[in-house]
Amino acid sequence: MQKEFDTFHEKIKLKKYDENKDLRDKRDLLIDELRDALKDEKIPGTDKSLTFRSINQGSYAMNTGIRPKHDDYDIDVGVIFNVTNEEYESGTLKKLVRDKLNKSNRTVKYKRPCITVEYKTEDYHVDLAVYSDNNSDIHIAWGKEFSDEKLWYKSEPEELTSWVADVSTDPDKAAQFRRCVRFLKKWKEKQFNSGGNGAPPSIGLTIQTRKAFNFYDKKSDLNALITVAKYIKDSFCDEYDHASSKWMKNIVVDLPVAPYKNVYYKMTLIQKDKFHEKVDILLEALEEAEREESAHKASKILRNVFGDEFPLVEDVKEARVMPYVTSGNNA
User: Does domain 13-159 have CATH number 3.40.50.2300?
Assistant: First the structure.
C-alpha cells in the first residue's frame, strides 16, 4: 500500500512557511504591524523601548502540518519580548498586544495560551503566543483575561521544535516520521469531526509519534503506523470514574521540555476514554489492512479511518476467458 500512502500524503501535507509564500507574507504582515504599533512603547518605569523577536511555532515550524479541511489555516507565531517577569505582569503585556491588533477588519481574542487574530474575509487566523525573554529564561504569558490565573510559565518553544526535528538525521527516517504524524492528524480530523471538542490535541499525537517512532523501510509506512498506534494505545491506564461508577481509560503525556505540562490536560476522562476507543479501532484497522491480501479491500479499510482522500485501489478480478467458438464454416 505504499504507493497509496505516498499519494495520500501528497494530498494532505502542508508546506512550511519558507515553501508557502502566501502564508509567509500573511504572517510577516501581522508581525510588522505589531512591531510598528509598539514602536513608541516603553517598558513601565523605564526609558527602555519595548521590543520583541518572533519565532515560528506549531506544525509549520515542525514541518508536520496538514491542509485544513475547510481552508482555515492556523498560523502559529511566538513573540518574545525583551522584558523580565518583574517588569511586566503577564496579563498586562498580553492585553497590550491584543489592544494594538484589535481593528475593525478582524476579531482579536484573548485566550489562555495566546492571542488569536481572526479575519472576517480571510481563510486563516493567527495564534500569537506572548513570551518574556526574562534574561534568556523564556516564559509564556498564561491565563484567561478575566481570571486570577494570569501567570508567567517557564517555556521552551524553540527546544520543543528542535526535539521533534531531532527524531533522526537520516532524511528517509525523518520523512517517514513526518508522514506518520500527518496521517494521524488526518485520522483525528475524520474521527473527531475536524478536531472539535473532545479531540486530542495535535501536539500530543506528535509527541507520542516521536517517542514511539521506529523506522521501517521507507516503503513501509503502514508498519511504522502500526507501531505508533500500539504505543499510543498502551499509554492509557485504567481509572475509576466515581461520577459514572465506571472504569475508564486515562492518559497523561507531558511535554518533553518546560513547562512539562500534560498535553491532554483539557480533555475530560470521558473524552480520553473515547480517545482510547478510537485508537483501538485504528490499530485494528491498520493490522487488518496489513494482513489483507487484496489491495482493494485494504484500501477500503484504510479509507474508513483516514477518509476519502486515501486512494481506493481498483477491484481487479480475474477475467473470465470465454472459449473461442467457430461458426463451423471454417472447421
Answer: no
